[in-house]
Amino acid sequence: MNKISYLIKSISRIYPNCNNIGYIPSRSIQLTKVQNLYTPSAIGIDGYLHTRRRIKEQFANFSDKFRSKMEDFVKDPKQMIFTEDLKNMVHMAEPTDIQLVLDMVKKFNTQKTEFRFGSFVFGPVVMRMFYFLEAPNEALQCFKDPDNKGFFDQLVSYQILLDLLYNQERYDDMYEIFEVVKERQINMTKYPKYPVILILAACYKQ
């Protein structure tokens, strides 16, 4: 399917009363005035940064020791990654820590569910970390890893990933991810509004 057909089909799913691509409510999407479609607060980056500052302050005197401990836990099959471990690492992470986070996510997600405590949803938070660190390659790697199945099954995780790819002008990657969005139909929704808006923006840019 060419990009124009893709664009028309996507619009018709969100705005079924539109008969052509010339009619899109102006309050829904504006592509010519700003580079980013969504503000940091709209996708939770402000909240992520607030928690990041707090956790980095808490770990100011022993962050290196914590990182070393997590590296050992990842390598040791007898050790587990707990919710608080991953939560802290995701909010402390610097570019040099991304591989450690990838390893922790994989181990956490493949642990037996009875060993997980609490109901914290990590998908959006990890995507916000990738967004903040401007790491689209690693975000795609983590998202596509079969060992992470179910980890990012939240519409907001898709939105953050697509927005990151849009900001990096990775439009072909966006189309690939959107096919996954349609296939998984999270919340019984094949064409969720905000991911579709990002795809419209990608079509427009190309």
UniProtKB/TrEMBL annotation:
This is Uncharacterized protein. It comes from the Eukaryota. One of its GO terms (molecular function) is RNA binding. One of its GO terms (biological process) is regulation of mRNA processing. GO terms for cellular component: mitochondrion. It comes from Leptidea sinapis.
